[in-house]
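Researcher: Here's the sequence for the chain we discussed earlier.
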Amino acid sequence: MPRAEHISTVGPNASPHPRSPSRRKLRALLAVAWLVGVASSVVVTAEPAAANQIASDKAEASAISAKLQGIQAQEQALSGQVEQADYQLSQIQSEISANQAKVVKDQAAVDRDVLQLRTEAIASYTSSGESSQATVMFSSNVNVSGIRSEYTSIANGNVTTVIDRLHSAQSQLQAAQSTLKQQSSRAVATRDGLQSAENQSAALLSQYNATLNSVNSQIQTLVAAQQAAQQQAAAAAAKAAFTAQVAASQQAQARSQPRAQIPTGSAAGGAGGGGGPAPGSGPLPSLAGGAAGAVQAAESQLGVPYVWGGETPGVAFDCSGLVQWAYSQVGISLPRTSGAQFGATIQIPLSDIQPGDLLFYGPGGSQHVAMYVGGGMMIEAPAPGLGVHITPVRTGAGFAGVGRVQ
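Model: Thanks. This is the structure I predict for it:
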C-alpha cells in the first residue's frame, strides 16, 4: 500500500472547467469567514491575560532562582565555617584533656615524693639514728638530739619546697585550664551560632525551593490551560467553518435544479471510480445499515498508535486499516487502501454527510481517509506519533470529497 496515506497538504484536483463564483457562493464564503473570525477572536481576547500571568510567574520564578543561588552560596560558606569551628573546638578540648592528664601525673609524682620524705623523717626521728645515713654523718662530737633536729629540719625543708613547687605548678595549670575553658566556651558559642545560621539558611533554602516548585507548577498549569483553550478555540473555529460550509452547500443545492439521474457505471468524483452518482448529481444513496456500528467500533480504538500498514485492534492502525477494520465489525467489507476505498464508495455532497461517511484526501483519495462521527468531527489514524483520535473535519487543501459506504 502506498506510504502516501497520511494527512495531505496537496490541493484538491482542479476542475476541468473553472467557473467564476456566483453571488450565492460568495455570500456563503463570506459567512464562513465571519464565523471563523468570531471563533478566532475568542483566542485573541483570551490569550493576553493568560500570557501576562505566565510572564509574571516566569519573572517571579527567575527572581526566586536568583535568591536561591545567593542562599546556596551563603549556606556553603556557613557550612565551611562550622567545620572550621568544630576543628578548633576539638583542638582546644584535646589540649584541655592533655593538661588534665599532666596534672594527674604530676600530682601522683608529688604525692610519692612527699610520702617518701615523711617516711624518712619519721623513721629518723623515732630511731636512735643508727640506721640513718644523715645520723652517721653527724655522729662525732654532736649529740643525737641535735642530729635528729637537724635532719628533721632538712626533711621538712625538702617537703615544703616540693609542696611549694606543686602549689605553684597547680596555680599555673589552673590558670591555663581556665583560659582553655574560656576559649572552649567561646568556640562552642561560635560553633553553635554558625550551626544555627546554617540551619536557618537551610530552612530558607527549603522554603524558596518549595515556592519555586509551586510557581513552576502554576506556570505549567497555565501553559497547559492556555494550550487547551487554544486547541478548543481552534476546534470551535474549525467546526464553525465546517458547519457554515455545509450550510452554504445546502443552500446552494436548495436553489439549484433537482439532481438528474446519471447512468449506472459512470465515474465517481475522483480517481478509481465509485460506480455511483457524483456529488450533486443523481439520487442520494442511503446510509449503510451498519454505519453507526462502524463509528462505535472506530471510537473503541481511540489512542491506539499509528503504524503504517497497521490493522490490528488495540495494537496499531493506519488510516485505511482503521476504516476497513471498523466496517468489518458490522459485516461490511472494504478494500485495504484509501484510494481503493475511495473507488469503492459512492461520492456524495459535503452537505449530505452523515456519521459513518468517509472523508478522503489527496488525488483520488489516495493519501488519507477518515470517518465522520457527527458534529463536525471525524475519527482518524493520522500519522506516526499520533494515535487514533477525533478531530474537527478538514476541508481545505487536499480534501478530495466524501464517500458513502454501501
